[in-house]
Amino acid sequence: MKFPIYFLFLGLLGCTLFGFARAQPAPHSYRIQAVGTNTASEKWCDYLRAQLERRMGNNHAVLNTSAPPSALDILIELDTTLTADYAIQRTGNRLTLQAENEEVMLWMIYQCISWLAEEDSRIAAADLPPALTDMRLSSRGNFRFEYRGIYSPSNMQPEARAILATHNVDDDWGLWGHNLRKALGNQSDESLYAMHDGRRDESQFCFSSETLYHGLESYILDNYGDGVHGAGARSFRFCIMPDDNDRVCQCSACRRAGNTLQSATGAVDRLLRRLAERFPRHLFFTTAYRTTADAPGSPMPANCGVLVSAIDLPLHPLNTQEKTVSQFERKLTEWKRVTSRIYVWDYMRNFDDYLTPFPMLAPSNNASRTSRKTAYRVFSSTAAAMTTLRWMMYRPMFSRPCCSQTA
Ligand SMILES: [Zn+2]
């Protein structure tokens, strides 16, 4: 039996660059400034400055304005129009760090500190892993996977996730798993439930129900906002899954939406589209599972996607000649026709080798590469009890950015 994990990531482009010996000595001081007057950039300047001052024991090596020629000028810019997740520009003593969003900027700040600490022993950075980017050179790049949510105890810590640029299902998803009933609360309206054999069946939902739609709308607004307005507005992910059985609503509205006796894709897809239009900053997913295994007939909105379970894949290096692998790829191909946002819910270990240190490292890397090669915006998951050491082994596989060196 495979041990369930949680997952995944979405990927992008590139190739990797890694450690170079540096020719220049560490600077004696650092001047940190924002590019332009962007308030968000200034916030991250303050953050980096505070981090360096604390880690250097407030020894006056971090400067605001006047600095000697030997100082390293670090410029910070949060640029939401950036066409990559991040960009590093290095010209002499000037280092410019650009990020497309705040999450990536936070990761870059820690990358920068870790990288500086390799040469400057005054910077205390024992809590940080080695930098994955070389800031001696200019480069730009993207993370291989959009969502990087390995489920492990060490990845439960918000501080660790900020440093490692990973996600956690409890914080990034407003609705997850077969939890629609929890979101809707106590509802007595029978129109919520599936019509089956002429009767309402409370074991399953009618996804054309107005009560269900408005219940979800209220749940999202009350708990997560619309993603646009209010302090700290941010995007959340919501997974709309039928309950875990094969019942499919046969009411006239659901059948008009495309439901069949075996497939609820029609009504679920229509609900996703309605929610995606109502909340354009949030992301809405369904699952390629049981009654929603089939992809819809037309492309989904950009803020919709699908979770695809990899439970049928063998836990050894993938061979595309194997039937289960080709079937999995066929499923991905079908969904790729309608969405570019495919998250794979993967598994990385068995109960029978639960205590083996790295039982699934090679197959996981193989699967990760396969997914990138096929250009799916996918991927992966991991075990429930992964230790910090194991997680650190997996981290470069998933979190190392793909970047192109430009200088
Ligand atoms: Zn229905």
Describe the structure.
- The structure is a single chain.
- By secondary structure, the chain is of the alpha/beta class.
- It folds into 2 domains: 107 residues, 2-Layer Sandwich (Chitobiase, domain 2); 253 residues, no CATH class.
- Helix content is 31%, strand content 17%.
- A hairpin with a 2-residue loop joins strand 4 and strand 5.
- The N terminus is likely disordered.
- Bound molecules: zinc ion (ZN).
- Zinc ion binds next to helix 7.
- Keywords: Signal.
- InterPro entries: DUF4838.
- It comes from Candidatus Rikenella faecigallinarum.
Shape: elongated
Structural class: alpha/beta
Along the chain, the helix and strand elements come as EHEEEEHEHHEHEEHEHHEEHEHHE
Strand order of the largest sheet: 2-1-3-5-4-6-14
Number of strand elements: 14
Mean pLDDT: 80
Compute the number of structural domains: 2
The helix content is 25-40%
Strand portion? 15-25%
In this entry the ligands are: zinc ion
- Report the sheet with the most strands, covering strand number, pairing sense and barrel closure: 7 strands, mixed
Tally of individual helices: 11
Low-confidence stretches: 1-23, 372-396
Distance between the termini: 49 Å
Please compute the radius of gyration using only Cα atoms.
24 Å
- Assembly type of the chains comes to single chain
